[in-house]
Amino acid sequence: MPTTPDPHHLTYDSTAAWLLRFAATAESVEPELTALDQRAGDGDFGTNLTGGMAGVRRALEALSDTPAADRGSPAVPLATAARVFLDDVGGTSGPLFGLLLQELAAAVAANPATAGTRELAAGTTAGAAAIQRVGEAEVGDKTLVDALVPAARALTACAQDTEPGQALHRAAVAAHQGARSTTDLRARRGRASYTGDHARGVPDPGAMAIALLFASYDDALSALNHLP
Description:
With 228 residues, the protein is an all-alpha fold.
C-alpha cells in the first residue's frame, strides 16, 4: 500500500507543482506586470519572468523522463529553476530570482528527507541576503527586497512543525503587504531608480512577483487579485 506524504515535509512533487503553478501565474499576469514595469522600469519584467518560468516548465517536463531516483529530492525542481534563471533569463530580475531559487534549493537539499518550513525559512533568508549583497538594496528602496525580507521574517517566525503550505501562505501575506508598501516610494535601486518620481503611485513589479511566488504554493491564491 503506498504511503501518504507527510504534509509537514516538502516532496519532489510538491515543489515541482509549486513552480508549475507559479509558471501559470506568471503567464496569466504578464500584461499586468508589464504595465507596472512600463511605469516603474523598462517594461520587460513581465516578459522576462514569463519566459523564465516557461523555461522552468520545459526543464521540469524533461525531468519527468529521467529515473525516479534522480528526481526524488524536493530540492531538484528548485535547483532546476535556479539554473534556468541564472543561465537563460536576462534583465535585472532574472539573476535575482535565480539567486533566491538557488538558496532555497541549497537549504532543502541539506535535509531532503524531512525538509519543510525550517528549510524554507533558511533558504528565503539566505536568498534575501544574497540579493541584497548583489543589488545593495534595502527595505524601502522600492525593489523586490521590500517583499522578500518580510516573507523571510514571516517564515522564520513560524514554528518548525508548521505545514509548508501554511507557512508559505503567511509568507505570501507578508510579501504582499511589503509589495503594496512600495506604491508611494521613490525608487532608490534597480531600473526604477532612473525614472525618478515617475514610478510613484505603482507598486514595484518585482515585489509583486515575489508575493505571487509564495502565494502560488496554494493554487487558490495564484492571481494578483487573489493575493492575501
